[in-house]
Amino acid sequence: MQLGSRRCILNPESGDGEHADYVPRLLRARGFEVYETAAAGDGVELGRAAGEAGASEVAVCGGDGTVNEVLRGLAAADHLGDVTLSVVPAGTANLLARNIGVRDVEHGVEVADTGRTRTVDVGVADGEPFLVSCIAGLPADASVATSGSLKSRFGTLAFLITGAQEAVEFDGLHIDVDAVGADGPFTWAGEALCLLVGNSRRFVGEGGQADMEDGLLDVAIVEQMPPQNLVAEAIGHRLFAADTDGVTHVRAAEISVSGHDEAITFSRDGELSTHDTLDLSVRERVLDLRVGPDYAPGPE
Predict the structure, then answer these.
(1) What three-state secondary structure class fits 127?
(2) CATH architecture of 6-114
(3) Are 118 and 291 spatial neighbours (Cβ–Cβ below 8 Å)?
(4) What is the 3-state secondary structure (H, E, C) of 234-295?
(5) pTM here?
(6) Which CATH number applies to 130-284: 3.10.580.10, 3.40.190.10, 3.20.20.70, 2.60.200.40?
(7) Which tens digit of pLDDT belongs to each residue from 216-228?
């Protein structure tokens, strides 16, 4: 193995920060060079540097936001197809790690070293990659105010629970959705509470599952509903389930979302951005990802 072919990009501020004391030692013992982030955006630059250096394996120790930064850096270096990515979950929600069967920090170190590899899809939103989801509407608006403990318990649904009080005054999204779906062209227009585009096989609790290896994104459009219904469905982890009233589903390879009168705020794996129109697509089976032994590509 060439020197520097294994790198770890570690965010010492993720979660409770306790991992920063011992994870570098564990990974260096397995042949990883460790690079630490010091500020927002450092993960992008360190990911780009790893790609430009030709690193064959990159482990990311942090939360979903850190993973997304590193992913963007690797993509900027045109290195997604030449690297094996692994996740050592040290954030709060750790949605990606949960989806791929990585239980905790220690298990993540083990998987980064010897875990099996699957080749997965990468979602793309306005040219920027994501692995878990891209959401618009109430979840995106509420994400900046969601507590760490709530995210740890409910994951993506925590954004909806946090935003339920705001729903009384939330005007909704007036959007047009055009997609190239698995069953042909799909269009939807109207007022929605939120829109969630998922790439990972389980991007929320018990519903809205997507296959990371099928070349499609799973789209859920939640129409306006009373705040009390929103909270009940969110706590029950059914908000994005296929049989929930007022939720429209489509699986698609290409999606375009446009606002009627104003720009829309999206949260791409926790990174916020605003667009008049957002185009989303899939890079099919482009990234080698180390997964835990319980990972299965298809939804349960």
Answers:
(1) coil
(2) 3-Layer(aba) Sandwich (3.40)
(3) yes
(4) HHCCCCCCCCCCCEEEEEEEEEEEEECCCCEEEEECCEEEEECEEEEEEEEEEEEEEECCCC
(5) 0.87
(6) 2.60.200.40
(7) 999 988 886 665 5
